Amino acid sequence: MEHFTNVALKGIHLYPIKSCAGISVSSWPCARFGLEYDRRWAVLDAETHVAFSQKRVPQLCKAIPYLDVEKGYLYVDAPGMRKLTVKIVRGGGGGEEEEHDGEDGGGGEKVQSRVCFTKKVARHCGTEAADWFSTYLETPCYLAYMPLSNPHPQPTPPQRNKEMSLGRNAAMRGERGSVSKGESADANFANKGEFLLVSEESIQALRDMSTEGLAQNAMGGIVKMTEGQEREDDFMYTKRFRPNFIIGGCDAFDEEKLSLLRIGDAFFQVTACFPLVCR
Questions:
Q1: Considering only CA atoms, which of 193, 247, 274, 243 is closest in space to residue 22?
Q2: Rounded Cα gap, residues 22 and 44, in angstroms
Q3: pLDDT by residue (tens digit) across 150-168?
Q4: For residue range 32-90, what is the model confidence (pLDDT) as tens digits?
Q5: Exposed/middle/buried for residue 135 (C-beta within 10 Å: 0-12, 13-18, 19+)
């Protein structure tokens, strides 16, 4: 087995609302289903109940969520919109959730949602959040929340997932040196694995390749970029891949060789590797 001793964790990101902007943190609690509150909400089509993605609704990337776990609220900002406040159920990060009635983000009516080719049981976050997102996205939709106590997902024919996936056997809590089977990804709106990982070197390599390819215009001339544009491009590239963990200190695409990853006292089994694509 190949060992990578110089690899270091460079960044942690979570995405409370699927396909919306992410949050960069220096540390964050882990649970069996993934980072706490990561992709626990999603915006669903009001008619089909399919979760929106940035491929279909690009303006989702400008919806910026904020979490105040201590007070129990999710806030969302977006251009031209007042701030949305959604109450969340305390204990939603790892323990048993209490059942509530009403528009509290966790105890609303149950809905049969779908993420890619997997059906999942979620809860409606109420009319205020639905109206807010419907107005912002200019299409009928609503915000839904994935409760912890959820039945197994109902898989339909698989589609090739195009992200680095860490998760189905990831141990997020437990004793040092152990790897235990975690809760399946039906606890959130993840496409596949509970965790996504990419290296800085892979992002840089892809940025270099794409910059080289885009540098030639249709007439064969060179498109020059300013220094500021280059820096912005690096930042945007990292955001586009929506990783939970960014590592550094390896060669480009070395993450494809990983089988077991340790971050602090948590161990992760790498279950799948897929080509890098923008989400």
A1: 243
A2: 18
A3: 433 443 333 333 333 333 2
A4: 778 999 999 999 999 999 999 998 999 999 999 999 999 999 999 999 999 999 998 65
A5: middle
